[in-house]
Specification:
The protein is α+β, with helices and mostly antiparallel strands. Helices cover 54% and strands 9% of the residues. The structure holds protoporphyrin IX containing FE. InterPro entries: Cyt_P450, Cyt_P450_CS, Cyt_P450_E_grp-IV, Cyt_P450_sf.
Length: 506
């Protein structure tokens, strides 16, 4: 399995050993540059001036610094992919409810992920996919938890080092496979999920899309139809879809046959829900099914593992927090027999708060990616013409003392304490709750429908590790720092933690 992203630009340029060639390429690049700089600055809001390189390589400090200057105001940043308009938390409320024909998430995501080349787009099935995740998958959670636990126990037994005594382990790559394995059980069902080829494809599809986008962004838009042929990940994406199709084919065909039998009850997984939910013409369309499966894998596996890994780093760095959360897990899951009980993961309220606090500090740099389709005028008078690209400076909100008192301190019980204030607060500050100043799962009709599933997977994995292992940082090591590539923030993938197996008597 390889998840390495090679960000080198193509080193060999076809046909390029004479001066005319270089002059032609140079002129074309100059025209592209000049065209970009003639782009009208059509929104009446101040600019935060920063070099493009900062956007590419130091986006978090750029967002934090710009937010500290403008805070409750709309402002703009010139980024690699054009001007971005940054929306403060106090104006998110009036935008998040606007319909897709006015403010589009799909168009914004398609542009950002260059779907024309990467094919990363559910197309007209986007709403269906989100609805199946929000409704069917979330409603099946209680029944799914024992199956996910079975997958986690299996992968830990077969792939996690024994750790009889303290042993170094890179948690990130293990977490990736553990999350892929748990999610796969709910998405494609037990049979395909156990195939190594599926594990590999479902993990690496997102990596190929991401690497393709980063490489394609180095070409101006009009050069991309040619540039795509120099990006190997574009071919890899097509291969991933072909591999997925070959794996899904026998299962889908068998289910379609079985469904003709009266009284047939299909298994509880996304493959089945897609067969039932897709139009008659698309039920048996393997390409459509495979793309939707891989898009969902890409939206869910890395995001979930990123947070799971950051949580593990904080457990290793804070032994006292580890002990407190272990006690809670022991009480709810072992003493009260919670592994088998409905809703027991919801009872892990301290763990819930810890996960939310880890996400507050290590979560998204920006969120709420949208494109204006029809003109919008905000209540502060700012006019947003069609074509305007919007973002919310989430890293700024997360460290704003008005929203989160003493924001620079890591307080694992911050949200636990907030939840105890009233019944309303108890709902408001759960891990899965969203608000205008907490957009780590987005906002409005496109808010992440998989957050309940993600929350359960992370709670399950953390509880399992708390009860079965102790974890700490290697001698003299600091808590591993997140890495930032453009707007994406991810945990240090190579950091080692020390694990030691516990017995229930410890
Ligand atoms: C900690 C893990 C996760 C994080 C931080 C996360 C975050 C996000 C964010 C920020 C969005 C965009 C929301 C917006 O623009 O308003 C999103 C959308 C989405 N997420 Fe997640 N996600 C996670 C896990 C998952 C999982 C496990 C699934 C599937 C089971 C999932 C499925 C989706 C889908 C289908 C969308 C598109 C929704 C739409 O456009 O209507 N996500 N997610």
């Amino acid at each position: 399995m390889s998840t390495t992203i090679d960000l080198q630009l193509p080193s060999a340029v076809v046909g390029g050993k004479n001066l005319t060639y270089y002059v032609a390429v140079g002129s074309v690049l100059f025209l592209a540059w000049a065209w970009r700089n003639r782009n009208p600055r059509s929104v009446d809001a101040p600019f935060y001036e920063a070099p493009n390189l900062k956007w590419m390589f130091d986006a978090e400090s750029l967002i934090l610094d710009s937010y500290s200057k403008f805070r409750n105001k709309v402002y703009q940043i010139k980024a690699t992919e054009g001007v971005q308009v940054l929306i403060p938390a106090n104006l998110i409320g009036e935008l998040k409810g606007l319909p897709e024909e006015v403010l589009s998430s799909t168009e914004a995501v398609s542009e950002a992920l260059l779907t024309k080349y990467t094919h990363f787009c559910p197309g007209h099935n986007g709403d269906l996919l989100a609805t199946l995740v929000r409704k069917q998958l979330t409603q099946s959670l209680t029944r799914l938890v024992p199956q996910l636990k079975e997958e986690l126990e299996h992968i830990t037994a077969t792939e996690f080092p024994e750790c009889k005594d303290w042993a170094p382990v890179k948690f990130h790559p293990f977490g990736l496979r553990a999350v892929a394995r748990m999610s796969g059980r709910a998405f494609v069902g037990a049979e395909i999920n156990r195939r190594e080829q599926w594990m590999d494809t479902s993990i690496n599809f997102a990596t190929h899309v991401f690497a393709a986008v980063v490489k394609l962004q180095h070409y101006p838009p009009w050069l991309r139809p040619i540039g795509q042929h120099l990006v190997p990940e574009i071919r890899q994406i097509r291969r991933d879809i072909a591999v997925g199709e070959a794996l899904l084919r026998p299962v889908i065909l068998e289910r379609l046959r079985d469904m003709e039998e009266p009284g047939y009850e299909g298994p509880e997984d996304l493959t089945q829900w897609l067969i039932e939910g897709l139009s008659e013409g698309e039920k048996g369309d393997l390409y459509v099914q495979t793309k939707l499966q891989l898009i969902l894998a890409a939206a869910s596996i890395h995001t979930t593992n990123n947070l799971l890994t950051e949580c593990m780093y904080d457990l290793a760095a804070h032994p006292e927090v580890q002990e407190m959360l272990r006690e809670e897990a022991y009480q709810v899951l072992e003493v009260e027999g919670g592994w088998e009980k409905k809703e027991s993961l919801a009872k892990l309220k301290k763990l819930d708060s810890f996960m939310k606090e880890v996400q507050r500090i290590n979560g998204n740099i920006t969120s709420f990616i949208r494109k204006v389709v029809k003109p919008v005028t905000l209540s502060n008078g700012t006019h947003l013409p069609p074509g305007t690209k919007l973002l919310a400076p989430q890293a700024g909100f997360s460290r704003d003392a008005d929203y989160f008192p003493d924001p620079s301190s890591f307080d694992p019980l911050r949200f636990y304490d907030m939840r105890r204030k009233s019944a309303e607060d108890s709902n408001r500050w759960q891990f899965t709750s969203i608000s205008d100043s907490n957009l780590n799962f987005g906002a409005g009709r496109h808010a992440c429908p998989g957050r309940f599933f993600a929350g359960n997977e992370i709670k399950l994995a953390l509880s399992f590790f708390l009860l079965n292992y102790e974890v700490r940082l290697p001698e003299g090591a600091e808590r591993p720092r997140p890495m930032v590539i453009v707007m994406s923030k991810m945990p240090d993938m190579n950091a080692e933690l020390l694990f030691r197996r516990r017995t229930m008597m410890d």
